Task: structure prediction
Amino acid sequence: MNIFLKANWENIIMVNYEIAPEILMPYLPKGVELDLFEGKAYISLVGFMFKKTKLFNVSIPKLGTFEEINLRFYVTRTESDLVKRGVVFINETIPYKIVAWIANKLYKEHYTVVPTKHSIVKDSINQKIKFEWLVQKKWNSIYVENRMSSHQMKKDSLEKFIYEHYYGYTKINEQTTEEYRLHHPSWKIHEVVDYEIACDFKAMYSNDFSVLNETKPTAVFIAEGSSVAIEWKRKKIYTNNERS
Result:
């Protein structure tokens, strides 16, 4: 297995919204279908820490630790008897131009670069974490207060649906999709006791997602995270045929 990227993902906050499937359809890559939970489509505003980042097992001096904010939704693809559950990113935001350039150049990802920052305050009982990013001279933010104790996700729960997608799908063009695989263990999650979301979805992600400005999250989760590895090899999926 040839690993392109390896890093620790920590304090992974998922702010989850029900969304009309027709909003997502223009962003749906060929060869995959929307993955629904109890018949509903979801989209997640995500904030987490990237730490100890390595490309092809080489550390990135001074650039290996940063915040990432992304917006993603959920898809599925069936090959014979194998069901692959994956994510599609609308946008991924980080603070470093060179890291974004590498991801966009090599894989045609959707990384953008804006100033970001975070704060973490914790004691033996609670943790307060805040991710912030600057868009059009205005700071957006995700804030969560959670218990420090953690537990396994329950089977068939919304949090398990949200967190446990182990493939990524990138829309290269109207005919071609790229598939890649992620590796990480099943994460433990913390109990969220308070949260506050200040995100201008229209300014950040276009008018297509402006409805989220007026939508209350269905649920907010935070996971401990772990080391994560992303494979180098990507499979190209074509409209009428497949080849690696």
